[in-house]
Write a structure and sequence with these properties.
It is a single chain. The chain contains three helices and four strands; from the N terminus they run ββββααα. By secondary structure, it is an alpha+beta fold. It has one domain. The strands form two sheets. The chain has a two-stranded antiparallel ribbon. Strand 1 and strand 2 form a beta hairpin. The longest helix has 12 residues. The chain is elongated, with a radius of gyration of 17 Å. The relative contact order is 0.26.
Length: 92
């Protein structure tokens, strides 16, 4: 497994008796499209949401996850402002 952002190989989580060590986060993302469903409340507007149409999992190492510009990129993906899979690939 490699970090989507920097390309570094990431290691599995290490579990110990009283602690654990995380080296990456797995992010569930992919191609999305805006969709609506009817609000169950009477006279309420439909609810708009991002429908995941082609899911992919990406891995982000803890060093990249700590960087503000990466966190912004992830937030932009989550809110639908800018899809992560189309904006960057490791090594580019």
């Amino acid at each position: 497994m490699q970090c989507f952002h920097c390309g570094r190989e990431v290691r599995e989580t290490i579990h110990r008796q009283k602690s654990y060590r995380v080296d990456y986060y797995r992010l569930h993302t992919g191609q999305t499209e805006w969709d609506f469903f009817l609000n169950p409340k009477q006279d309420a507007a439909p609810i708009r949401y991002l429908k995941l149409t082609q899911p992919i999992d990406i891995f982000t190492c803890i060093a990249c996850y700590a960087r503000p510009e990466i966190r912004q990129r992830l937030d932009d993906d989550f809110t639908g402002r800018r899809p992560l899979p189309e904006t960057h690939r490791a090594g580019e």
